[in-house]
Amino acid sequence: xxxxxxxxxxxxxxxxxxxxxxxxxxxxxxxxxxxxxxxxxxxxxxxxxxxxxxxxxxxxxxxxxxxxxxxxxxxxxxxxxxxxxxxxxxxxxxxxxxxxxxxxxxxxxxxxxxxxxxxxxxxxxxxxxxxxxxxxxxxxxxxxxxxxxxxxxxxxxxxxxxxxxxxxxxxxxxxxxxxxxxxxxxxxxxxxxxxxxxxxxxxxxxxxxxxxxxxxxxxxxxxxxxxxxxxxxxxxxxxxxxxxxxxxxxxxxxxxxxxxxxxxxxxxxxxxxxxxxxxxxxxxxxxxxxxxxxxxxxxxxxxxxxxxxxxxxxxxxxxxxxxxxxxxxxxxxxxxxxxxxxxxxxxxxxxxx
Length: 353
Prior knowledge:
Blueprint: H1 5-21, H2 34-57, H3 61-67, H4 70-121, H5 125-130, H6 133-162, H7 165-171, H8 177-191, H9 193-200, H10 202-210, H11 220-245, H12 261-286, H13 296-314, H14 323-352
């Protein structure tokens, strides 16, 4: 199949929409602790959805995984475990900073590490990226993306200075800038490990194609071991929190919790499946980017921030901010959209070489 970078950008935008939206259903969960709804949603994100979609959209999923090199499976799982630390602290970032500022900070680190490290590690950064016109255009797009993320961060800091403590607590009940920045930094660096896990799964993609899976769906089997690693980390942490906070009873209907059980499970499941779709579309988009598929990570990060910022506006997280702050937010969205155009154009040039 001939790569189509324009179509790839669309797929990455759909993935960004899913990622930027997944936390919204959690707002409908009532009387459950964070660790409870995070783990329930995670079961659907990291176990149910990868297997169900993998079985539906690919050929002989179990055979592909059985025949895959043990080293590839272990590396996918290993990077998934490390990514899991970023994933669980990502949820904490949303609690402390809100969707707009939280995602901007986490994804800034994640975009830099997840995009640039794979070609550097593979030893092709100088020859294939710096040494070609298309590679330099893509690198320019990465720089534009980082600039957009920086402007989004400035908008968030400007909002933080302007809003009173009461206003912050009204829209983000647990707002804490210092704690949020520390958690966001750790989360962003560790979240980039997902990119490394996808790269480690290249031998699995080859086997998927050999079993007759179409090019567009070849990356779905890789998500199974990577997300299993993420599930491991999150499961252990959430269970520990359940024990420490004595919140394990929340999984079951009881007079003590008085939680709306069915809605809570449904909202958590919806959040989890929505989260999974970001990488469902990511793997599709990656197949369309040609030899510069590492740039997919930048497109993914940029689109996530665009849609999460729009959600932040819709959920009134920017209410009370000045016109200057709102203009910074608008500028960041514009620059991030521009970055996806530049990266897409660079990949288009790559298909013409």
